[in-house]
Amino acid sequence: MYDFERPLKIGIRGSVLAQTQTQLVVDKLQEKFPNLNVEIVIIKTSGDWKKSQGEIRLSEVEGGKGLFIKEIEHNIIEGTIDCGVHSMKDVPTFLLPNMGVDHVIERGSPYDAFVSNKYKSIEELPKGAVIGTASTRRQAILKHMRPDLQTTIIRGNIDTRLAKLDEGQADALILAVTGLERIQRDHRIAKIFTMEEMLPACGQGTLSIETKKDDVAVRSLFDAIHHRATGLCTVAERSALEALDGSCQTPIGCFATLNGHEMTLRCAVYEEDGSKHYYEETTATITTTKQAHDLGFALGSKIKPRAPKTLFA
Fold first, then answer.
1. What 3 state SS string does the chain have?
2. Is the confidence at residue 57, as pLDDT, over 70?
3. Active-site residues: which are they?
4. How far is CA 166 from CA 61, 126, 159, 171, 173, in A?
5. Domains by residue range for the chain, with CATH
6. pLDDT tens digits for 28-51?
7. Does 223 score more than 60 pLDDT?
8. Cα 162 vs. chain centroid, distance in angstroms?
9. Are residues 196 and 71 in contact, defined by beta-carbon separation less than 8 angstroms?
10. Are 87 and 200 in contact (CB under 8 A)?
């Protein structure tokens, strides 16, 4: 049982979105446990983009995968904080030993948004127009949809990216709907892509709580607010990613839905130039975490032999 005499220390990044998302978790915790005191610990991560590094991929800075998570994870292990709140789509496929992200709250919108001051949709963009996104998945899909367009890497928090759009650095941006909604910038959305147009990233729209697997007391708090259906869906998605050896820098879309006990899982791997993609979907009755894991792993394993090995390098 958790000792309510001490505050629960939650480590997060310092962005407005990170703080807003963490408050969603805190509100749910304090609704269940009114006597719980929570201390938010802002941890600066090497994954936070710095202008001095230029517009380069995070995979090119300090070795790649999991930069958003690394310092927070080490602080949990060292005991500086009890847990971390992450956007699930940023969580590496493989975590450090004894770490888990098996608690989530109910998923927000998983979809991608087209944001532009001049154009209402990607179809309206003129030939040669520039779309800003740092996601290899979005870039590959955009190149498939409109090979005549240009993509540019635009980083920073949501407001920074929107400011760059307003300054004319791009004609449009592709951003996650849920992030825009959570910081009340959804009025900037011109169009929301359907799942058929742009398959979401693994875990997109989901908030996860990372804890040590053997920290029974802390995990008992999150057991009380865990959203089971969202959890099963993200297990299936992450297991497909695991089978593919994918990361947040691999152009992969993966999205699960659960209707009662019937899960439908869709997954696609994209050639970076948009020329081809390798898609599979499956439906099965899912009632346990193991079943969700096995479904995702089997689907990812089915796709991997068809896709070029260079995509997973």
1. CCCCCCCEEEEECCCHHHHHHHHHHHHHHHHHCCCCCEEEEECCCCCCCCHHHCCCCHHHCCCCCCCCCHHHHHHHHHCCCCEEEEEHHHCCCCCCCCEEEEEECCCCCCCEEEECCCCCCHHHCCCCCEEECCCHHHHHHHHHHCCCCEEECCCCCHHHHHHHHHCCCCCEEEEEHHHHHHCCCHHHEEEECCCCCCCCCCCCCCEEEEEECCCHHHHHHHHCCCCHHHHHHHHHHHHHHHHHCCCCCCCEEEEEEEECCEEEEEEEEECCCCCCEEEEEEEEECCCHHHHHHHHHHHHHHHHHHCCHHHHC
2. no
3. 90
4. 27, 18, 10, 9, 11
5. 1-107+205-226 (3.40.190.10), 112-192 (3.40.190.10), 228-313 (3.30.160.40)
6. 999 999 999 999 999 875 545 444
7. yes
8. 19
9. no
10. no
Residue pair 79/6 in contact by the 8 Å Cβ criterion = no
Check residue 41 and give left, alpha or beta (phi > 0: left; psi -120 to 50: alpha): beta
Please give the residue that has the higher pLDDT: either 107 or 58.
107
Q: Closest Cα to residue 151, out of 163, 143, 159?
A: 143
* Token output for 136: 């290899």
Cα-based distances in Å from 198 to 82, 172, 269? 36, 16, 12
Percent of the chain predicted with pLDDT > 70: 91
Condensed to tens digits (0 to 9), the pLDDT of residues 251-268 reads 999 999 999 999 999 999
User: How far, in Å, CA of 291 to CA of 100, rounded?
Assistant: 18
Match 């608690």 to its residue by tokens.
Answer: 103
Which amino acid type is present at position 36? L
Signed CA dihedral, 300, 306, 309, 312: sign only: negative
Q: Pick 65 or 67 by higher pLDDT.
A: 67
How many Å is the Cα radius of gyration of the chain?
19
Determine the Cα–Cα distance for residues 302 and 239; give it in Å rounded to an integer: 12
